Amino acid sequence: MTPQSRRRPTPRRRVDRIALVAVAAIAVAAIVWAGVRIAGRDDTPGPAAVASDPGVAHVHGLGINPADDSLIVATHYGSFRIPADSDEAQRIGASFQDTMGFTVAGPDHFLGSGHPDLQGAQAGQPGRLGLIESTDAGITWTSLSLSGEVDFHGLAFVHDQVYGWDSGTGRFMVSADRADWETRSTLDLFGFAVDPDDGDRILGATPTGLTESADGGRNWAEADGPPLVTLTWDAEAGLWGADPGGAVWHRDGPAWVQAGTLVGEPQAFLATPDALYAAAHDADGVTGIYRSTDDGRTWGLRYRDTQQ
Questions:
Q1: d(CA 39, CA 175)
Q2: What number of other Cβ atoms are within 10 A of residue 135's Cβ?
């Protein structure tokens, strides 16, 4: 995706903390929901459709829908759409599904993973959704594979393949048909990005620094660079990442160059040919979606979650 004095918590522990805080806050308000992965569990349902819409709250993934150039925001409480000509976040569909892994596969075509909301769990959906698919821009989702088995916290669709990282087991997995999967390695990741020009070249962000694979994720070697927590790789925009303090980095040849800085630790990051997008908490703990059109030097607020 500043050297740290302490080892950063793994993605599993970070999600546990988020879930515990959310449970306490909502319990005070006497609103019932089913939290995700409390006390290290990975098979509990996602949040319920609560009495008052919790809004964006926490972002797991960002993507541009080629059908209309809208920004899709996959969150702990369902998915949202920010139109290209608006700064308003519109909830997609009626689901409050916790969409952890998320990637855009084509116009109105998304792939995801995560946990169901309370209604989904009551309808029989497992706590771990495996690989799920939407062909109507996120309004509805269907199961493709690994239902009940895998919770992908990282997904990428590139080179006609799906690359995924399972948070429960640490398996790095690849599928050519979205049904059968090859486990290529096991490691701990904050995130990863696949080279748009070479499907075998993958960069990962781990708790101990960057790691790189030259054989499609089967083997990994330590890589030089800042300790990033998010990564994004676009064929035109290049390779970008952000560190825990919000500093934004771009790889220029073999070297990493720092650009600007976000308001806080990033939740998700996306590079496109036209702009960079990031989700981050501000000083008040409120999630915002930020955009940069000058190669990460400055960031403007695109959307601020007023419902928190």
A1: 30
A2: 15
- For position 308, what pLDDT does the model report? 53
With cut-offs at 50, 70 and 90, classify the pLDDT of residue 13. very low
* Residue 274 backbone zone (phi > 0: left; psi -120 to 50: alpha; other: beta): alpha
How many Å apart are CA 104 and CA 138, to the nearest integer? Answer: 10
Look at residue 41 and tell me if it is in a domain.
Answer: yes
Residue among 115, 111, 105, 70 nearest 91 (CA): 70
Radius of gyration in angstroms for the set of CA atoms belonging to the chain, rounded to a whole number: 18
Helix (H, G, I), strand (E, B) or coil at 248: strand
Residue 2 domain flag? no
According to DSSP, residue 76 is labeled: T
Which residues neighbour 34 within 8 Å (Cβ) at sequence distance 6 or greater?
44, 45, 46, 47, 48, 117, 118, 121
Judge whether 8 and 244 are in contact, CB under 8 Å. Answer: yes
Contacts of 1 (CB under 8 A, 6+ apart): 190, 191, 193, 205, 228, 229, 230, 231, 232, 240, 241, 242, 243, 249, 266, 269
Nearest to 138 by CA among 68, 87, 231: 68
Are the beta carbons of 98 and 47 closer than 8 angstroms?
yes
Question: What is the CATH classification number for the domain harbouring 105?
Answer: 2.120.10.30
Q: What is the pLDDT of residues 42-98, one digit of tens each?
A: 444 455 445 578 889 999 999 999 999 999 999 999 999 999 999 899 999 999 999
CB 182 within 8 Å of CB 173: yes
Is residue 37 one of the residues assigned to a domain? yes
Give the chain's domain count: 1
* Structural domain boundaries, residue 155: 11-304
- Residue 302 confidence (pLDDT) above 80: yes
Which ranges of the chain does DSSP label H, i.e. alpha helix? 11-28, 118-122
- Residue 5 lies inside a defined structural domain of this protein: no
